Amino acid sequence: MGADEELIDQITMSRLCGIRPKTAETWRVRGFGPRYVKVGALVRYRNADVRAWMESRTVGSTSEPLPRSAER
Fold first, then answer.
1. Is the dihedral of CA 24, 59, 46, 30 positive or negative?
2. pLDDT of residue 54
3. Taking CA 59 as the corner, what is the angle to CA 67 and CA 63, rounded to the nearest 5 degrees?
C-alpha cells in the first residue's frame, strides 16, 4: 500500500486539516469534508482523499470563489 492509499484515523486527518476531531464528525454528518472509508465501525481517511479535498479548497485571494463542489 502506497502513501496515497494509507488509511489514517480521524485524529490524524483533523491535525492535517487544522480542525478539532469533533468538527470532522460534524462534517461527516453534513456530507462535507474529505471522503472517508468505513471499516466496520471505524472511520478512516485515505491520504490522497484528504490532500485532494484540501487542494479543492485552495484559492489565490479572498475575492476568488471556491469551486461549487468545494462550497459547504
1. positive
2. 93
3. 85
Question: Rounded to two decimals, what is the model's pTM?
Answer: 0.78
Closest CA to 22 of 34, 30, 14: 14
Give average pLDDT by consecutive 10-residue segment, the chain, 72 residues. 82 96 96 94 96 90 70 47
The strand ranges marked E within 1-72 are 7-8, 37-39, 42-46
d(CA 38, CA 30): 16
CA atoms within 13 A on the CB side of 6: 9
d(CA 57, CA 6): 22
